[in-house]
Amino acid sequence: MPIQKLAWKFLVIGSKGSGKSSFISYIVYGEMTPGLQRSLIKKTVTREINGNRYSVDILFQEADDDAERTMGTATGMIVIIDLTDSGSLQFAERVITRAHGMNKSNVYIIGNKTDLKYEAQIWKEDLEELSRKFGSDYYMVSCKDGTGFDGILDDIVDRIISRNVLRR
Predict the structure, then answer these.
(1) Residue 50, exposed/middle/buried by CB under 10 A (0-12, 13-18, 19+)?
(2) How far is it, in rounded angstroms, from Cα 9 to Cα 60?
(3) Most buried residue among 98, 107, 150, 153 by CB atoms closer than 10 A?
(4) CA-CA-CA-CA torsion for 35, 144, 114, 119, nearest 10 degrees?
(5) What pLDDT is recorded for position 132?
(6) Minimal CA–CA distance to 61: which of 51, 49, 50, 75?
(7) What is the model's pTM?
(8) Residue 40 in contact with residue 25, Cβ under 8 Å?
């Protein structure tokens, strides 16, 4: 059976210090890579869904305040929220509101820094509320110790294929 090739660009958006580079490092390399360059980072994922095989090249691009400039070219967005910074939640809500205004539906919310639970200012319930408000999935991770990363990328890829490719 032939493999259908797809290429997607994901913006990884978050306030300064939220863990965008660390998140990309864990998703792409499976570990934290110090000094990750702020450029497009590629990961290839293969999936089989409903008997069809897909090879998906995913380009991850980090963005913060310049996100609106690059949103239009993105297949999806991963919004990183620093659980230890209450301002990070408001930043994320503004970004997701803009994304929905541009008809972007592939938006995923990541609560980062679960390892710092005693410093948390944002809780799981806050992410659940944001998730319900915008119809986005959310995940809780620690980019420091790798907790919570199992299956995130597979889940996101499967959802986008189901939502955008199989509907055609």
Answers:
(1) exposed
(2) 6
(3) 107
(4) -80
(5) 96
(6) 75
(7) 0.89
(8) no
Q: Phi, psi at residue 38, to the nearest 5°?
A: -85, 80
Tokens representing residue 104 in the block: 């972007």
Residue ranges in the chain modelled with pLDDT below 50: none
State CA 84 to chain mean position distance: 18
Does domain 3-165 bear CATH number 3.40.50.300?
yes
Residue 157 dihedral angles phi and psi, to the nearest 5°: -60, -45
> What are the extents of the domains in the chain?
3-165
Cα–Cα distance between 112 and 37 in angstroms, integer?
20
Tell me the C-alpha distance between 150 and 51, whole Å: 24
Q: Tell me, what's the pLDDT at 126? A: 97
DSSP lists the bridge partners of residue 49 as 52
CA–CA distance, 5 with 23 (Å, rounded to integer): 25
